[in-house]
Amino acid sequence: MLILHPEQPTSLVNQIVEGLRGLIGTQKLKADSKLPSIRAFAAAHGVSVFTVVEAYDRLVAQGLLVSRANAGFFVKRRSDDMAPGTPAAPQDDPRFDARWYLQQIFENRHLPLKPGCGWLPHDWLFEDGMRRSLRTLAAGGTDIGGYGLPFGHMALRMAIAESLSERQIVVEANQVLLTQGSSQALDLVARQLLKPGDEVLVDDPGYPNLMFMLRFLGVHIIGVPRTPTGYDLPALEALLAVHRPKAFFTQPRLQSPTCSLASMPQLVRLLQLAQEHQFALVENDIYADMDASSRPSLASLSQLRQLIYVSSFSKTISPNIRVGYVAAEPGLMEKLAQLKMVSGLTSSDITERLAFGAVTDGRWRKHLKSLRDRLAQAHASVARQLEALGFELFHEPAAGLYLWARHPDITDTAELSRLAAVEGIMLGPGQLFLVNPRPTGWLRFNVAFSGDERIWRFLERSIEERKSDLSGD
Q: With CB atoms counted within 10 Å of each terminal CB, which end of the chain scores lower, N or C?
């Protein structure tokens, strides 16, 4: 297609861009023509796949190419090339966009390899317990014709209160509000606490869904750096010297994406800072059931004073049941329940009853122990494989879902993730989790989905190609 000249001072990327621009401009490449795949182009012209990715990206940005999901790159049909009434070809801009990428994660769950996803494999979930709960509901003639209660199914709320007491969090059932997963819980809390223009603290890197939701509310997000041992407290104190946040949304335990754990002294100091600077703490503890250690939480230390606690059953029972909850002081619960009713009426009584049946099943605790053991084994195996390829590990918790890692020869994991998707691999690029997205070498690995050798062969090949590209070979 093109003749490239590596000996010339013009970079190979620019040579490809200008060469394809010329072919498109002279219509030697006509509208809707399909270009060779990234790997095919790289092999045919003796260049690295990273060079081709950058060139194709630039042509997309210039409006000359489009990327079509699961199809490849095509010459873009310009408006003056179209006959009247001709619909525009579907297109995706492959330049990294966190919201777009997050949507693709859920729309492309069919990808055979998912080391970047945020859930457990189906055979790691409590499927047997769910089936038994379903059979019990069916046999009991559950009413499916009405609405649930505003606060949610009472029996489950009582079970949650009892479970929280085992974690040293003393609450009554009337302090528990059931929601459609933890995402709705966080949304209700944010809308209750914040108004447009407010400043709010979040973990950085942190939870992308939360960041999107907060930005949608019009608040100013301030990132608090995570460290392998929890929080960068000097950085937090420096931020508090110049900002007046209304709240801090945080995951002290097995945080996503780093899986770091905040120590007891850090939790105590964070509570002190919240009191001194008068901001609310919102503790997202959705990975608590994956933690074998009986460690303190912000909620157990504060007993919900100036703190709101959020958790969910979606990670350990099944993502499909979408049952989460909020626990807080009684005075706040009525306001949150009213917001819940305004935004979506009641949550699903059926799924709440299913969750209740699962968590009161005699094998629930055995399931959690087995899950924790499997995760610990997966952590050890995946950590050693990453190190063998030269990755640096942020932290090794031996619990939870994730490992956060980077390789010195990979500077843009968004680019790597696009290449991986072509080969049926869903990666978790670091940009997705940053408060201020930028190219980064960090990747989030879900250890439960990282056992397939094809993932490691892809990473090894990509690293070698990158090294070759950097050396100029």
A: C
